[in-house]
Amino acid sequence: MTPDITKSTIAGFATVKQFAVLARDFFARLTRRHINYYLSRELSKHVGPGRRFSSVREHRLFEDALDLHCREATRVIKEYSGEWLSKHNYEGGVDPAKAGRFVSYAAKKIEAN
User: Fold this and answer.
1) Which 3 state secondary structure label does DSSP give 47?
2) How far apart are CA 107 and CA 93, in angstroms?
3) In the chain, what percentage of residues exceed pLDDT 90?
4) Residue 69: beta bridge partners?
């Protein structure tokens, strides 16, 4: 992949709509990975007869439900992030400090949700 193709691809996320989708996907995956960090060590111990998940299939259904939960918990980010980008583009653009505040506030919105 050439630098020009990379820049062009990334530029596609600079629209309000695409940034909102990207931000939600990012935070949904981040939330899921954070939860998985703790659950991955424990859940496999609870699969089998007489345990929380009687089969691998039940365990997989739980994992799928957890994925959905993380997507739903980050739904608030989709609307917020699009508005945030629009505002900051209007005010002169995004810099690292503004991006850092965006991530911090987005995390608080997810936690409060």
Assistant:
1) strand
2) 21
3) 50
4) none
Do 58 and 101 form a contact (C-beta atoms < 8 A)? Answer: no
Rounded to 10 degrees, what is the CA torsion of 19, 86, 104, 77? -50
Length of the chain measured in residues: 113
Q: Is the overall model pTM greater than 0.85, yes or no?
A: no
Instruction: Give the phi and the psi of residue 40 in degrees, each rounded to 5.
Output: -60, -30
Residue 104: predicted pLDDT = 95
φ, ψ (nearest 5 deg) of residue 91 = -85, 10
Q: Is the pLDDT of residue 65 over 90?
A: yes
User: What does each C-alpha distance from 49 to 44, 55, 56, 64, 113 come to in angstroms?
Assistant: 13, 7, 11, 21, 35
Residues 72/77/79/81 CA torsion (nearest 10 deg): -160
